[in-house]
Write a structure and sequence with these properties.
Layout: E1 2-7, H1 12-23, E2 28-34, H2 39-49, E3 53-55, H3 59-68, H4 71-75, E4 78-79, H5 83-91, E5 98-101, H6 109-117, E6 121-124, H7 127-144, E7 148-150, H8 153-162, E8 170-177, H9 187-190, H10 195-198, H11 208-216, H12 218-230, E9 238-242, E10 248-254, E11 259-263, H13 269-277, H14 291-294, H15 308-319, H16 323-339, H17 347-362, H18 370-394
Parallel strand pairs: 1-2, 1-5, 2-3, 3-4, 5-6, 6-7, 8-9
Antiparallel strand pairs: 8-10, 10-11
Helix pairs in contact: 2-3, 5-6, 6-7, 7-12, 7-16, 12-15, 15-17, 16-17, 16-18, 17-18
Bound molecules: magnesium ion.
Length: 395
């Protein structure tokens, strides 16, 4: 039995991961869980899966969960610390074989590095970790001989296409993108998009942050950066094609011109199960892909003019250094402001570009330690929040 620790168990990926564990109870067990603030759902999960160790974002949320549990369940549970300490505790839990990082945002970076240092296999669903600290994380994994398995569907697809093949024979990686809900909208209409429009994604059901990122195509931009680190591939050999049906999850082109693709239904339980079963494959209760039912598969080039976030992500990668940290932090602040109704849809890219320009003129030093990454992340958030107030005044 493989013992799994999950960072972010109450979110969309965490919930799907528990469903996978449930469907394979003979091969998988939950050993530790960490969640943010959803105490009701977390208490249900803890009662159902009986992890040995649990953590939440705050001590009060943790206490609330412990109180909601039956005494016999609660007595078998060790409560880890709160916040970042709790995440590290869960990620380094001695009996965990694999740590799934599914918490949104950047709080889990330290926990992922701790899991790697403790020799755990890491399944990574959180792309911000690699965007912020791709070099740190992949260096650490190499040093500790730890496998990092991508759960993000595109990177999972590429991992499946590459598996066992000589990486020097790869010509390029091709990431597919659904194009989001505004794929065909003209620029003037995009300017009037509100949070409600952007939260309706055509093919994937996901949390709010990633759904907005899919609408701006920043999600794909972050995925280019993620792919650069996961597969050690320069950005000029990572292409994007818009594929509205989301059936081809990504492709790899080899030096002989052959292109391998991975196809499947749009259900995150599939890449999660692949990571849990790797290098084996297991049966699944999920319905199979029906190609004739899908009918046709379309592919288009992305429009960098209507979706400037994608261009900004390539720029951040090209210029190197720590610009991706700024891009990521500014994007989180901008998406929050958009969801709160304080910014327009096209202001998201505008704000990120302003933050990147500010970094270029004020803070050009590259960062190479966890503390330096965290400092730069904090600087970019403060700076972007100030810039957001400026944009808001002009609206
Ligand atoms: Mg993805």
């Amino acid at each position: 039995v493989k013992r799994i620790a999950i960072l972010g168990s109450t979110g969309s990926i965490g919930t799907s991961a528990l469903a996978v564990i449930d469907a394979h109870a003979d091969r998988l067990a939950v050993t530790a869980l960490a969640a943010g603030r959803n105490t009701a759902r977390f208490a249900d999960q803890v009662a159902r899966f009986r992890p040995g160790t649990i953590a939440m974002a705050s001590p009060s949320a943790l206490a609330e969960v412990m109180q909601a549990l039956d005494a016999d369940v609660a007595s078998g549970i060790r409560t880890a610390g709160a916040g970042r300490t709790g995440l590290v505790d869960v990620a380094t839990c001695p009996d965990a074989d694999l740590v799934l990082c599914a918490s949104a945002g950047t709080a889990a970076l330290e926990a992922v590095l701790a899991a790697i240092a403790a020799g755990k296999t890491v399944a990574l669903a959180n792309k911000e970790i690699l965007v912020m600290a791709g070099a740190l994380v992949t260096d650490a994994a190499r040093r500790h001989g730890v496998t990092v398995l991508p759960v993000d569907s595109e990177h999972n697809a590429i991992h499946q296409c590459l598996d066992g093949r000589d990486p020097t024979r790869v010509r390029k990686l091709i990431l597919t993108a659904s194009g989001g809900p505004f794929r065909e909208w003209p620029r003037d209409r995009l300017a009037r998009v509100g949070p409600g429009d952007a939260l309706r994604h055509p093919t994937w059901r996901m949390g709010p942050k990633i759904t907005i990122d899919s609408a701006t195509l920043m999600n794909k931009g972050l995925e280019v950066i993620e792919a650069r680190w996961l597969f050690d591939m320069p950005e000029d050999r990572i292409d994007i094609v818009i594929h509205p049906q989301s059936i081809v999850h990504s492709l790899v082109e080899f030096c002989d011109g052959s292109v391998l693709a991975q196809l499947g239904v749009t259900d995150m339980r599939l890449p999660i199960q692949y990571a849990f079963s790797y290098p084996d494959r297991w049966d699944t209760p999920i319905r199979p892909l029906d190609l004739t039912g899908a009918g046709r598969l379309d592919f288009f080039a992305p429009d960098l003019d209507r979706f400037p976030c994608l261009r900004l992500a390539y720029e951040a990668l090209q210029e190197g250094g720590s610009l991706p940290v700024v891009l990521n932090a500014a994007n989180e602040v901008a998406v929050d402001a958009f969801l709160a109704g304080r910014l327009g849809f096209m202001d998201i890219a505008r704000l990120i570009e302003q933050a990147m320009d500010a970094y270029r003129s004020e803070r050009p030093a590259a960062v190479s330690t966890l503390d330096a990454v965290r400092d730069l992340d904090a600087w970019a958030r403060r700076h972007t929040a100030d810039l957001a107030r400026g944009l808001q005044l002009k609206r």
